[in-house]
Amino acid sequence: MVSKNTILDALRKVYDPEIPVNLVDLGLIYDTTIEDGKVDITMTLTATACPMHTVISQNVKKAVEALDGVSEAEVNIVWEPRWNPAMISPEGRTAMGME
């Protein structure tokens, strides 16, 4: 059975093409739920007009659906709470030269 940690590990391999930090460390992944092999990912983007939103969503879906025990993944983009740089993890801050 797939776990939330396994999903987050997979999502640490997915990047915003314009920012050299993975989506988890950017603070863009808000929640994941797992039920009978179906995974729902609730996430946001750094900006509402992000030109790469489709590519990012597709990459998230592919990364999660590649996991053993996942039959389907659905990506839900939300705008509340609004993302801000304070959501970046310490690892993400280091990678971006913010610390």
CATH class: Alpha Beta
Helix content: 25-40%
Structural domains: how many: 1
Q: Count of DSSP E strands?
A: 3
Strand order of the largest sheet: 1-2-3
Radius of gyration: 13 Å
CATH architecture: 2-Layer Sandwich
CATH superfamily: Fe-S cluster assembly (FSCA)
* Average pLDDT reading: 95
- Supply the helix-strand structural class: alpha+beta
Characterize the biggest β-sheet. Answer: 3 strands, mixed
Shape: globular
What this model shows, in words?
The protein has helices at residues 4-11, 23-26, 53-65, 90-95, and strands spanning 29-35, 38-43, 72-77. It starts with a helix and ends with a helix. The protein has one domain (4-90): Fe-S cluster assembly (FSCA) (GMP Synthetase, Chain A, domain 3), CATH 3.30.300.130. The protein has 99 residues and is an alpha+beta fold. The chain is globular and about 40 Å long. It has a 3-stranded mixed beta sheet with strand order 1-2-3. The longest helix has 13 residues, at 53-65. 31% of the residues lie in helices and 19% in strands.
Relevant terms:
single chain, 99 residues, alpha+beta, GMP Synthetase, Chain A, domain 3, three-stranded mixed β-sheet
Write the layout of secondary structure elements.
Blueprint: H1 4-11, H2 23-26, E1 29-35, E2 38-43, H3 53-65, E3 72-77, H4 90-95
Parallel strand pairs: 2-3
Antiparallel strand pairs: 1-2
Summary, kept brief:
With 99 residues, the protein is α+β, with helices and mostly antiparallel strands.
